[in-house]
Amino acid sequence: MIIADRAPETTTDPHDKSPSKKSVKITIIIPTDAYFMSGLRDFTMNVVRNMTGFSDQWAFRFQSVVDELVNNAIEFGSAEGEEIKITFVSVVNDHIEIFVEDKGTGPSKKTGEEMSKMVQERRQQDPTKITTIRGRGLSQIVANWTDEMEFIDNEYGGLTVHITKSIEGGETL
Amino acid sequence: MADVQIQIQDALFGDKAGKVVRFAGQLDETNVDEEAKKIYQVVDQSELPYIMLDFGELTYMNSKSIGYLTDWYTRIAEKGGMIVVAQPQPNILDILKVVGITQIVSVYETIEAASQALAAGAVNPAS
Lengths: 173, 127
Hints:
The complex is a heterodimer of chains A (173) and B (127). With 173 residues, chain A is of the alpha+beta class. Helices cover 36% and strands 23% of the residues of chain A.
């Protein structure tokens, strides 16, 4: 996993005007409160179904991916009263990127390097041997349903988690 | 906030007394800690728990709710009982598979198949 500081960007060729390579970017900001998660899951479902080219199965999967990433940001990244920014970047019929950005004011702040290490260590575990209630969200659900997951130390002192998933790989799983 | 309803009913699986726990709605960070207590109560009150979790109307579950499912399995297995999952929707089965839980807890497509497995006392996958 790469630890870097970078802003969301698409990889769309600007000269490619074909409708199948249309790019869509949507950013939403929610308060640090799990109360809003149900609405965010509905929103994610609609974005994936209508603006990406991914199948319905993957719309459900991205619901879980976003839910786990944002719950993690709520629990560890941003203090109550702060905000969490979620950005969807879709290159239609090609790939999706999702950025979840916290402010680093939460009760258990971690650096990008620390998060990467923690997830990597949990990835080494046999999932059937995990006996704790927690510990499956990022290391099992998000890691298995994305091509890449990186933790970036952001300009606000918090973390931006960036995931990518290509539609080709997604549709063949 | 996510909405979930849990109904717990007595049931007979062959000659074994047990419970059917029906879930409807979404299990997420806003409700799972509170709702999980109901299942722990069922597990703790039975000497030999035989429990069917009917996920037919469950539309979402997060990683923490899967963690609780694992913990219920462990406690029930320690008592010599059984827990099975019945008729999960495709997205629920998908997430159970991706975290490896279907290798531990048996999942059945129908209520009838889950009942028969509990009646037969068929072992859970990890037993």
